[in-house]
Model the fold of this input.
Amino acid sequence: MNREQKRSKEEARLTIEKVDKMRENYVQEFTGTSRYDTRNYQLVINMDEINEDEAVNLILAYIKSMAA
Done:
């Protein structure tokens, strides 16, 4: 479902911050850790210096290595 919400940039920023805080609180409550703690993930990709196609290749290589 695609719906467009008429919000200012400030309203959108505040909404994003609110949702992020809710997600962080949920993870903290049920796991005792932060959702930003990379130790909770098997694969973390820094997208600063690669494009989406390169990220896809990294993900596929990782999946292939896990299947071996």
